[in-house]
Structures are given as C-alpha cells and as structure tokens.
C-alpha cells in the first residue's frame, strides 16, 4: 500500500472516530503458505484481500477493495495454495481492486462501481478460490437486486476488464424451497463491440443446489459455456461436493468433470477457469480431536487431460489442522504425488511438505 493510500485510510478512520461521520469497518482475507519439494527447492505464496466499508447513512454505503497476490509477481508462479512462487518475490505491491456504492431502498438494492461475479466455486481446498461455471470476473457497471424469503433476483451490466471492447450482462436467480434446500441459477454473456456474435461473444449458464439432511450436506453445480471463435465451442462442467459430520468424524468429497467435446480447454497454455484438471475425485476422511486440533487424509485422483492418461496422477496429502482462534486456521501437510503414466518407478514420485495459514476478519 503506497503512502497516499495509507494516509487516506488513516484520515478516514480518524474522521469516523472523532466526528459524527460515516461508520467505517474493515474486512480481510489472508492465505499464505511455504513449502518444500524435498529436492532442495522452497516456495512461498500469498494472497491478501482487503476491504473498507463506509456506511454513509441508513440507505447508502461505499466500499473500496485492495489486493496483494503473489501470482502477480514477475514469475507469475505464486498462486495459493502450493504454487511455485519464488521466496525472493514474496514482496508484492498492494493493488487497487475496485470500489462500489450501494443504495438500499424498498424497491431493491442498487450498486454502481466495480462488480465481481464468480459462479460454481469449489469447496475443495486446492481450488478454494476457483470456480467451474465462470472464473472470477470484474465489470465496472451497475447492479440491481431484490429478494424475499423465497426468491431473489440480480441483474448486472457493465464494461468488462478484458480489453477496451468488451461488456458484460449477467444475472442470478435464487429459489429457497425450505430451510434445507435451495437452488441458484446463473446466466449471462460477455461480448465484444468490435466483432460479430460468433467471433466475439461468450455465453454461460449454470445452476447450484444446496441441501442438508441431518449430518449430510450436499452442494451440486452444473455449468455450460458456449465460447466464441470461427467455430463456436461448447463446454459442460459438473461438480458434486457432499460432506458429512458424525460426532468427531468427518468426510468430504469432491467429484468434478469437464465435458469438452469441441476441445476448447487448453491445459498446457491457458486452461479454462484456471483449473488444471478435466477430471477430479477427492475424498478426505477426518477426525476432530477437539476445538483446537483436527486431522485429515485427502486422497485424490487428478485427470489433467482425459485423452492422455500419462498426464494424470494420484495424490496422498495427510494434513493436520490447528484452529487457534475463530476464523484462523493453520494447516500442516505432507504430500506424495504418484504419476499414472506407464513404467513409473520410485524415482518418479514427487513429494512435498508445507504449512498454510488462513485468516479472515
């Protein structure tokens, strides 16, 4: 954060304390790790998201956001978790990440500014900041939303952050059937003003189901993308993530598959949604010793390319969890990666050991 930004934050904070000005609050998310591949290399990765909210009156509020992400370093390798960020690049500039002003009224909620949409997010730890219907996307524009006990609706429109010709139009519809079952619908497109529909417009649609039945929780997502190009391409994605908690025993599962009939996904260059898998199965049995300590054993099958088994691998990631305070997590983990290519020997196995801290406020 540069000196001007820091001074502005301090000035606003002081004003809120010593005057009857706006109510100021802060929020944040920190995810930082360090790990070693047991071959002599060490890596550090981190992400910091900061938010400042100003409640100007009963109906109007403003929000400002900043982000520090080691994936934006010179090497671009510092994604969290377990990226290959260079320790010498851990000091990364804090960048402006957007603003918005929100107006609440009896007719609904209106927002203007930098609006974020991201549909189909994973519970799975390795993809916890990623999604399979749309990637995290930003548009500078307007949003209108209204809701009741059973129904919600949002519509957003604005200028996309992918060049100087693209605009977004998207919406969400929420249906709450009862306390334990709900359905979210997502849809929209991103189009270029300099190209025709075939070559310049991407369309997406998807749905998310959330359900609970006693100790069992279920999240299921389905996504469809129709992508622009000389020949338009279709992609279907499916995600199922049930979990169960019985006394001190827990189990979590993720099943994900991408159906890519038109070969739109390019794993080696620029994978869709930033996901490195077209097929994923993950299960983690766990045990909670008390409120402070827990342990889990993630077992994972990763299919990077469904047409080439040599790119697939099996992961074993024993993990010890420490919860020193509310919204603070410390993960200690080890890992062995077993490639699924033919004629694999012990020398082809890959190992890792690391530590990750997550703080929310």
List the helices and strands and how they pair.
Elements: H1 3-18, E1 23-36, E2 42-55, E3 60-69, E4 95-105, E5 108-117, E6 137-147, E7 151-160, E8 166-178, E9 181-192, H2 197-200, E10 201-213, E11 216-227, E12 233-246, E13 249-259, E14 279-288, E15 293-296, E16 299-303, E17 313-316, E18 319-325, E19 328-339, E20 350-360
Antiparallel strand pairs: 1-2, 1-20, 2-3, 3-4, 4-5, 5-6, 6-7, 7-8, 8-9, 9-10, 10-11, 11-12, 12-13, 13-14, 14-15, 14-16, 15-18, 16-17, 17-19, 18-19, 19-20
Short structural description:
The chain is mainly beta and 361 residues long. Helices cover 6% and strands 58% of the residues. The chain folds into two domains: 1-103, no CATH class; 104-360, Porin, LamB type (Maltoporin, Chain A, Beta Barrel), CATH 2.40.170.10.
The largest pleated sheet is described as:
20 strands, antiparallel
Number of domains: 2
What is the helix fraction of residues, given as a range? under 10%
Strand % is over 45%
Query: Could you say which structural class the secondary elements and strand pairing correspond to?
Result: mainly beta
On the 0 to 100 scale, the average pLDDT is: 93
> What is the CATH C-level name of the largest domain?
Mainly Beta
* SSE pattern, N- to C-terminal: HEEEEEEEEEHEEEEEEEEEEE
CATH H-level name of the largest domain... which superfamily?
Porin, LamB type
